[in-house]
Model the fold of this input.
Amino acid sequence: MSAARKRALTPSTIDNTVIQKKRSKRDPDSNCDKSTYNGKIRRAGTITRITLKNFMCHSHLEVNLRNNINFIIGRNGSGKSAILTALIVGLGGKASTTNRGTTVKSFVKAGKTSATVEIILNNAGPDAYKRSVYGNEIIIQRNFSATGSSSYKVKSGTGHLVSKSSKEIQQILTSLNIQIDNPVCILNQDTSRNFLSTSDAKQKFILFMRATRLETLDLDYKNILSNKKEIIKTYKEKEKVYQELKKFLKELEIKIENFKGVAELKKKLILLNTELAWAKVRDIEKEYNDHVAIVEDLSDKCSKYEDNSKNKSQRLEEIRQKSSELQQQIMELKEAAEVQSRPQLDLQNEIAGLRQSYSEKRQRKQQVMKQIQDKNKNIEALKVEIDNFTANLNKVEQEKLTKKKEMSDLEAQIGHIENMIETTQNDVFQLKSSISRQEEQENDLQRESKQVKTKYDQITDQINTLKNESNALVVYGKEMPEIVKAIRQNKNKFTHLPRGPLGASINIRDKKWDVAIEGFLGAGLLRAFTVDNKKDNALLMEIFNQHCGSGHKPLVITSKFFNKVHDIRPNLVQADSDCISLYNAIDIKDPVVANCLIDQRSIESILLIPSTERAIQLLSDENRVPRNCSQGVVINGDTFYPDPNYKTYASGYHKARYLQVNTKDLIRGYEETLTKLTTELKNIQAQSNAVIVDKGKQKRDLAELAKKLEKLRQTNFVAKRKLEDLRVMEDSESVNVQTLENEVSELKSVIERLTLECGNIDEQMKSIKEHINNAEERLTGLTQVAKGFEDRIAPLEQQIREQSKKRQDLDVNSTFEKKRLQETKNKLALARSVMLSKQKELDKQTEEATFVGERAEELRQVCDVVTEINTVQSTIRKVESSLESPETIGQQYQKTRQKYECVTHLIRSLNENIQELNLGISKRKHHYQVTEDYFVNYINHNFSKVLDFRQFKGSLEVNMAEKKLELIVIPQQGSQGLTVASNLSGGERSFSTVAFLYALWQCMNFPFYFLDEFDVYMDKINRAKVMEILIHHAKNNPEQQYVFLTPQDVSFIRDGDVSIHKLEDPERRAVPED
Done:
């Protein structure tokens, strides 16, 4: 690296690149009109001047392009391609289009915070863009920042700001026909090299399609076909709607006819309801008589059991008196035991209290249940009153009242359903979001697992290689010993023997700096090779291909070999006593390797610092930064950039792997890494399995929610439709019925409250029961403790049992008699209750039946009457639900008829559009074919004309089906016969390819044409001919502008109409001899 280039990297140094111009005597002076050349008006859109500030390698560069023919020359590295890159991005192009970077921040010069590109376009002539606004020139300025942001300024020729929008730039380019992404307009270095050196017919075909814009026409044609498919799909959907509407119209017509039979069915329904009411009265009368007979029988049995019980009670009283005396003696003995077991008494008291509370709760529950029964009876009475009142209403009022109630119920139902739908939708959204996060987490874990496995396999392979290979070069890769061996075997084929791997030539003077040095230089550079020229590069790549296969190949650096180390003394960092420059920290015997590291990494300006604290102290303040220090590297590998651009980056490099490493230590470190990777892989797999299980469960839940949501929506749709139909009819109010219904609602609310209270009581009783059980368990434990006292009174208890047995024998019969008596009384009470209930029910039903109508002599069974009523009601509902009302049906019929006519008209219009679209597609296809034939024939004609300059013959073969374009050439009047371009010599192939490019020029009319390194693969003869052709074509088109960039010598061009701009050569100095 030259000292001048290295000064450009220092923020405090300004690099003013000098452009030298060779001008003829006819070159116009600086005061001439910029829009004319040699008396002819230059076309609008040509470039007057390009100015670069802090852009790539240029600190400040200004290029004046007043002539229509311009050559920009300079050695590699002088910044020619930077001018072309600036032109593309300055006119709004993307960074990726330039093939020089992915973001615009990469174009800002190292050490600078911003860059500027200014382009002045000629705006004179008949094709000028908004000349009244911009004048004779348009100034486009684009600013970049090191953070990646950029902005535009579009100014008039006088410097007045017109716009800051990129859309204005696109309109300017479209109006002036400037296509920065067209390789015919701007052929950059990479495209030029690939285009001129490749023999791939498909690559030439791609260039042909892009240059002629046939690629855009083909894409538009495919979009039209896609639109046609969408229209046909819409047509089929509307056709389906048309058939559905037609069917629905017929159904409405049938419903109107069926409405007339509903009145007769309603009259029959009234008679059936009367018969049903009296049939129920008959059945209840029979049940009531049966219950009266049961009550009389049970009363007789009770009288008999009471007489027997009185006789046995006297005998049992005598036995109980004697037993009581014995029990008193037992209680006196137990009192002594109770004194020793007082806790038992406390627990018994607690249990008794709990049982008392339980009994009270149970009594309260019975009271609440009794209240609920009473309220229900009141509701039944109110319903009877409502029915009685309702029966007095005429038919119309009854129907309106029924519909109003049904509408109210439907509104409540719809509100409830919509709340459930909203809740379910929220649940679905939450589940979908959760599943999406789970899938992202699963993908992340899979990628992480794959990376760990790949790293595991790589390290395993490295361990096996280190164990099986004794050559020290194996640390640079298992194939490295074979590569070095092959290089030595082919040393006579190289101009200069390649050096590499570079790390093998480096010795570290102090082992403590190994991580810092190796981390800074990087594994790629340590494994790299350096060669003197392109020929050696190609030969070395052949060796790599033989031994590396499809694996990662080492980096190859092509740089001229010098046998003396560069003079780095002006740029050597001035280190303090505890620091050292990287250049001085290593020992390199080979000057070629030393020069390579100086050029690639500027090792003379890198300062090695013993600690982070010391690095902060030295580099955070501009006043303390050592002279010539561009970076600082701490002993652990962390990197520091000095003030005023102070920043730091942590290193991920923690152990040396290449420079003077011990193979056993390296293997041991790799094995430790494998252990960590195995643990990490297991953890990742466990996390992945957990995520998969959770995701599966959530998907099942989501499917269930989707089914539930669909069912709710269908139910809601049916309810809304029914409500809408009911709203068509006029509502009516009935104050009295509404009052009764309000009372029923209030009673129901009271019942709900009582029911809730009953539920609370059940919960409290359950809790009390649990406390009783717990206390009894503790009492059992204490009873075990008191068992010793019980053993002492066992003989006394035996006497009590004997007395008790005697009492039980006497008591059995009495108890049995009482039990039978109580059971009989219970049955009697229940029978009387049922009898009274049936009597009330009979009275109520008789009253209702009397109100409905007179009793018939013969009555059918209730089930038969109910069946016939249900049949009639079903028929009425079916007809009414399908018809609603004649007015509603009529409105539906009219609306449906209008929709039917509208859809019919739409289908007719779509059919006409499809026919017109088919005609348009046919015309566009024909136009595309004509355009394609025109370009092929016209380019073929111009290609042959250019070949005549070298007395070549040839043509173009364009295969549109296989997407190939072959250059068929007969060089030197057929001396070699007909052949494709790939069989020609390098110079002949380049000449033929340039001839093809020239032919494309003839078809595409742009304001300017830029070619970069178009002549690098030509010999002198072909290069001279190509230059002659290009200059001749440019002279014949003086209104257009031609700019050629080349690293080659153009001193043979003596034409005064040609401007030659030469960039300053990059400098390099070698170490002077002593």
